[in-house]
Design brief:
This protein is of the alpha+beta class. The protein has helices at 25-38, 125-128, 157-163, 168-183; strands at residues 2-3, 10-11, 64-65, 90-97, 101-108, 117-122, 137-141, 144-152. The longest helix is centred in the C-terminal third of the chain and has 16 residues, at 168-183.
Length: 186
Protein backbone atom coordinates (compact mmCIF):
# COMPACT_ATOMS: atom_id res chain seq x y z
CA UNK A 1 0.00 0.00 0.00
CA UNK A 2 1.49 3.35 -0.97
CA UNK A 3 1.01 6.15 1.54
CA UNK A 4 2.00 9.76 1.77
CA UNK A 5 0.87 13.17 0.70
CA UNK A 6 4.11 14.15 -1.00
CA UNK A 7 5.75 13.05 -4.22
CA UNK A 8 7.56 10.15 -2.58
CA UNK A 9 5.62 6.89 -2.20
CA UNK A 10 6.17 4.66 0.79
CA UNK A 11 5.32 1.04 0.14
CA UNK A 12 4.09 -1.07 3.06
CA UNK A 13 3.34 -4.75 2.49
CA UNK A 14 2.69 -7.59 4.91
CA UNK A 15 2.93 -11.22 3.83
CA UNK A 16 1.91 -13.70 6.50
CA UNK A 17 2.59 -17.39 6.50
CA UNK A 18 -0.46 -18.51 8.51
CA UNK A 19 -0.40 -22.25 9.09
CA UNK A 20 1.10 -23.25 5.74
CA UNK A 21 4.84 -23.43 5.35
CA UNK A 22 5.99 -21.31 2.42
CA UNK A 23 2.42 -20.54 1.31
CA UNK A 24 3.04 -16.82 1.06
CA UNK A 25 6.57 -17.06 -0.37
CA UNK A 26 5.50 -16.68 -4.01
CA UNK A 27 3.36 -13.63 -3.29
CA UNK A 28 6.19 -12.24 -1.16
CA UNK A 29 8.60 -12.47 -4.11
CA UNK A 30 6.02 -10.82 -6.35
CA UNK A 31 5.52 -7.93 -3.90
CA UNK A 32 9.27 -7.49 -3.39
CA UNK A 33 9.80 -7.25 -7.15
CA UNK A 34 6.97 -4.72 -7.47
CA UNK A 35 8.31 -2.59 -4.62
CA UNK A 36 11.76 -2.44 -6.20
CA UNK A 37 10.24 -1.14 -9.44
CA UNK A 38 8.10 1.41 -7.61
CA UNK A 39 11.17 2.86 -5.96
CA UNK A 40 13.40 2.84 -9.04
CA UNK A 41 12.11 5.85 -10.95
CA UNK A 42 14.53 8.33 -12.54
CA UNK A 43 14.99 10.18 -9.25
CA UNK A 44 15.27 6.99 -7.18
CA UNK A 45 11.69 6.95 -6.01
CA UNK A 46 8.32 5.99 -7.41
CA UNK A 47 5.54 8.45 -8.15
CA UNK A 48 2.58 7.95 -5.82
CA UNK A 49 0.55 10.67 -7.57
CA UNK A 50 0.66 9.13 -11.05
CA UNK A 51 -2.59 9.17 -13.02
CA UNK A 52 -1.93 5.53 -13.99
CA UNK A 53 -2.17 4.24 -10.41
CA UNK A 54 -4.86 1.56 -10.47
CA UNK A 55 -3.86 -0.84 -7.71
CA UNK A 56 -6.83 -2.45 -5.97
CA UNK A 57 -6.92 -3.70 -2.40
CA UNK A 58 -9.18 -6.71 -2.09
CA UNK A 59 -9.84 -9.39 0.50
CA UNK A 60 -9.33 -13.00 -0.57
CA UNK A 61 -12.27 -15.37 -0.85
CA UNK A 62 -12.73 -18.13 1.66
CA UNK A 63 -11.06 -21.39 0.72
CA UNK A 64 -13.58 -23.39 -1.34
CA UNK A 65 -13.78 -26.44 -3.61
CA UNK A 66 -12.61 -25.71 -7.15
CA UNK A 67 -14.91 -26.00 -10.13
CA UNK A 68 -12.67 -28.18 -12.31
CA UNK A 69 -14.22 -26.68 -15.47
CA UNK A 70 -13.66 -23.07 -14.29
CA UNK A 71 -10.58 -23.17 -12.05
CA UNK A 72 -9.85 -19.85 -10.31
CA UNK A 73 -13.12 -18.54 -11.78
CA UNK A 74 -11.60 -18.44 -15.28
CA UNK A 75 -13.96 -19.81 -17.94
CA UNK A 76 -12.21 -22.58 -19.86
CA UNK A 77 -9.46 -23.17 -17.27
CA UNK A 78 -9.96 -26.92 -16.90
CA UNK A 79 -7.82 -29.40 -15.03
CA UNK A 80 -9.94 -32.55 -15.37
CA UNK A 81 -9.82 -35.24 -12.68
CA UNK A 82 -7.45 -33.68 -10.15
CA UNK A 83 -7.29 -35.08 -6.61
CA UNK A 84 -4.86 -35.11 -3.72
CA UNK A 85 -2.69 -38.12 -2.91
CA UNK A 86 -5.50 -39.63 -0.83
CA UNK A 87 -8.34 -38.48 -3.11
CA UNK A 88 -8.84 -35.03 -1.53
CA UNK A 89 -10.68 -32.34 -3.49
CA UNK A 90 -8.78 -29.49 -5.05
CA UNK A 91 -9.56 -26.18 -3.38
CA UNK A 92 -8.83 -22.57 -4.24
CA UNK A 93 -8.68 -19.15 -2.67
CA UNK A 94 -8.91 -16.14 -4.97
CA UNK A 95 -8.50 -12.41 -4.78
CA UNK A 96 -9.93 -10.17 -7.51
CA UNK A 97 -11.27 -11.10 -10.93
CA UNK A 98 -9.57 -11.88 -14.23
CA UNK A 99 -10.54 -8.43 -15.59
CA UNK A 100 -9.31 -6.48 -12.53
CA UNK A 101 -6.33 -8.66 -11.65
CA UNK A 102 -6.58 -12.12 -10.15
CA UNK A 103 -4.51 -13.96 -7.57
CA UNK A 104 -5.40 -17.61 -7.02
CA UNK A 105 -3.90 -20.25 -4.74
CA UNK A 106 -4.64 -23.92 -5.46
CA UNK A 107 -4.33 -26.58 -2.77
CA UNK A 108 -5.70 -29.97 -1.84
CA UNK A 109 -8.15 -30.26 1.04
CA UNK A 110 -6.19 -30.64 4.29
CA UNK A 111 -2.75 -30.45 2.61
CA UNK A 112 -0.30 -29.40 5.35
CA UNK A 113 2.20 -28.10 2.76
CA UNK A 114 -0.18 -25.36 1.63
CA UNK A 115 -0.90 -24.29 -1.94
CA UNK A 116 0.75 -26.23 -4.75
CA UNK A 117 0.17 -23.37 -7.19
CA UNK A 118 0.07 -19.58 -6.93
CA UNK A 119 -1.40 -18.12 -10.14
CA UNK A 120 -1.85 -14.49 -11.03
CA UNK A 121 -3.24 -12.34 -13.79
CA UNK A 122 -1.40 -9.06 -13.25
CA UNK A 123 -2.81 -6.16 -15.26
CA UNK A 124 -2.11 -3.23 -12.97
CA UNK A 125 0.44 -0.94 -14.67
CA UNK A 126 2.34 -0.52 -11.38
CA UNK A 127 2.82 -4.29 -11.10
CA UNK A 128 3.24 -5.29 -14.76
CA UNK A 129 6.40 -3.26 -15.31
CA UNK A 130 8.55 -4.88 -12.59
CA UNK A 131 7.73 -8.34 -13.93
CA UNK A 132 9.32 -7.66 -17.34
CA UNK A 133 12.54 -9.43 -16.39
CA UNK A 134 10.74 -12.59 -15.27
CA UNK A 135 9.96 -15.46 -17.63
CA UNK A 136 6.19 -15.09 -17.26
CA UNK A 137 3.83 -14.81 -20.22
CA UNK A 138 3.33 -11.17 -21.28
CA UNK A 139 0.25 -10.26 -23.34
CA UNK A 140 -1.82 -7.30 -24.45
CA UNK A 141 -5.49 -7.52 -23.40
CA UNK A 142 -7.79 -4.98 -25.02
CA UNK A 143 -4.92 -2.49 -25.31
CA UNK A 144 -3.67 -3.05 -21.76
CA UNK A 145 -0.48 -4.98 -20.89
CA UNK A 146 -0.85 -7.99 -18.61
CA UNK A 147 1.28 -10.77 -17.18
CA UNK A 148 0.21 -14.34 -16.45
CA UNK A 149 2.41 -15.42 -13.53
CA UNK A 150 2.77 -18.74 -11.77
CA UNK A 151 4.73 -20.16 -8.86
CA UNK A 152 4.37 -23.94 -8.69
CA UNK A 153 5.42 -26.50 -6.07
CA UNK A 154 7.93 -29.01 -7.35
CA UNK A 155 6.68 -32.56 -7.60
CA UNK A 156 8.31 -35.54 -9.22
CA UNK A 157 6.56 -36.56 -12.47
CA UNK A 158 5.13 -39.69 -10.80
CA UNK A 159 3.64 -37.65 -7.90
CA UNK A 160 2.15 -35.11 -10.32
CA UNK A 161 0.63 -37.81 -12.53
CA UNK A 162 -0.88 -39.58 -9.48
CA UNK A 163 -2.77 -36.35 -8.69
CA UNK A 164 -3.98 -35.89 -12.27
CA UNK A 165 -2.00 -32.68 -12.75
CA UNK A 166 -0.18 -31.75 -15.95
CA UNK A 167 3.53 -30.93 -15.74
CA UNK A 168 4.54 -27.35 -14.88
CA UNK A 169 4.57 -26.22 -18.51
CA UNK A 170 1.17 -27.85 -19.13
CA UNK A 171 -0.39 -26.22 -16.06
CA UNK A 172 1.02 -22.80 -17.01
CA UNK A 173 -0.22 -23.27 -20.59
CA UNK A 174 -3.75 -24.30 -19.50
CA UNK A 175 -3.90 -21.26 -17.20
CA UNK A 176 -2.46 -18.86 -19.80
CA UNK A 177 -4.64 -20.10 -22.67
CA UNK A 178 -7.84 -19.79 -20.63
CA UNK A 179 -6.87 -16.36 -19.26
CA UNK A 180 -5.93 -15.12 -22.75
CA UNK A 181 -9.31 -16.21 -24.11
CA UNK A 182 -11.29 -14.82 -21.15
CA UNK A 183 -9.59 -11.42 -21.41
CA UNK A 184 -9.46 -11.17 -25.24
CA UNK A 185 -5.67 -10.95 -25.31
CA UNK A 186 -3.30 -10.92 -28.28
Amino acid sequence: MARGDGPQAVLHAAVTEGTSEGGAAGIGRLLASASRALTSGPDGCGNANSATTTTHYLAPSVLHDSDLDKVCGIPGFRLGKVTGSAGQKMQEQTTGTPAEGLYCDLTFEGDKEGPFAHLAIVNDAWLVKPLKKRSFTRVDCDGRPAVFADDLRHWEPKERAARGLPDDAGLAKAFGDAAREALHCD
